[in-house]
Amino acid sequence: MPHPTPRLILESLLPHLRVAAAYAQHIQPHISARPDKEADNFFGAALSDADLSVQTFVEVALLGLFPNIRFYGEEYARSYNTKYFRAIDLGEQDDYLVTLDPIDGTQFYLDGHSNYQIILSVLNRDDFEAVLAITPAQQTYYYALRGQGCWQGRLEDSLEDCQPLRIQPSSSTIFLGWQMQALIPQLTDRYTVIHAATSYSKTVQIPSVNGILTGELDGVVIRKGQFIDGSALAFLAREAGGIATIHDGSPLPPLHECENYHRPGLIIAASPTVHQDLLEAIRAEQEQVMIN
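RESULT FIELD:
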């Protein structure tokens, strides 16, 4: 039996993802945190009922629609459905792996912010084939297909009704992920710098990585690009005309060369100028470490 195309996977799951988005938005004011997961920061450790419920809902839809699909969800270790999927890892070329971050930005979600997302991706052996990222509280979504560009639409829009998205530098704001604070002194003369660990507020929303798509950010530096979120958003940005590399400026490595479902540290930039500034900041910080 031929494998479903990436576009068919997105089209088939979009109605179910709309329902999941409505659920996540409805329960957000009443949500309570579950015991933290093991992680090296409070963003990664956050876990909610919505993470588990959205993943279960999408798993049921996937198993009903594409029973032979490979699937890896963030909460696979807690899921009752993991054992029913053919595999949870990358396959051979064109034997796609669907991945899911059921609530990207769980801490944002728990604190009542609006920029959490549901991110579904279709991965090939070498690279992403498609990503669909819904922002439930803002009733919008983004999607991209490999080599075909990125689109933005209202949540009720079909894929065909979405509009092309091209990111442009506009904010002079940079987002630094966890453990990237050493870059702050290298950038503050030209940019407003938001650092995930020190800038985060429970009461005042700050941009997250997805701000590169909304125009809130001109650049992002993160310590690692997990397939389910950071790497997926980098794919959307790249298809929207942005630049995505690893920290030394090299192209992103093929997915099958990566371990533990993540790429090395990522730079995502809205323009070559911003990308160059971020590269120089990383090099300067590395030189300082060597001197010390």
